[in-house]
Amino acid sequence: MSPTFVLVSRSGQTLGKRFLHLRIVRVGGTRAGFLRAFLLRDFVFKLLCGIPLAGTALFVADVASLWRPDGRCIHDRFAGTKVVTTS
């Protein structure tokens, strides 16, 4: 198993997000934690995307939602999170 879930749960960052100075937080700006940052945002959403046909449509809609004015994808809205820039 990858240590990614530990990194995301503790700091809100994967190695890639750390390199790009990005962090996953709750909509209010507090730490997202394991439940929101990993379970809801990543694991459950990937399970839903695995459903034949409906999952493919969900995945395409999620990618297309990158260009929303608030920049939050469907998986962010589902988990109540957002990605912010760190200094």
How would you explain this protein's 3D organization?
It contains five helices and two strands; from the N terminus they run ααβαααβ. The chain is mainly alpha-helical. It has one domain. Helix 1 crosses helix 3. The model has no long low-confidence stretch (mean pLDDT 91).
Topology, element by element:
Blueprint: H1 4-11, H2 15-19, E1 22-26, H3 33-49, H4 54-64, H5 74-79, E2 81-85
Antiparallel strand pairs: 1-2
Any descriptors?
87 residues, 54% helix, two-stranded antiparallel ribbon, 5 helices, mainly alpha, 2 strands, 11% strand
Rounded Rg: 13 Å
Q: Which strand order does the major sheet show?
A: 1-2
Number of helices: 5
Number of domain modules: 1
**SS-based structural class?**
mainly alpha
**What is the number of E strands?**
2
Query: What is the percentage of strand-forming residues?
Result: 5-15%
Shape, per Cα inertia axes: globular
Q: Whole-number average pLDDT?
A: 91
Spans of at least 5 consecutive residues whose pLDDT stays below 50 are none
The SSE order reads HHEHHHE
User: Biggest sheet: strands, sense, closure?
Assistant: 2 strands, antiparallel
Q: What percentage of residues falls in helices of 4 or more residues? A: 40-55%
Question: What is the CA-CA span between the terminal residues?
Answer: 30 Å
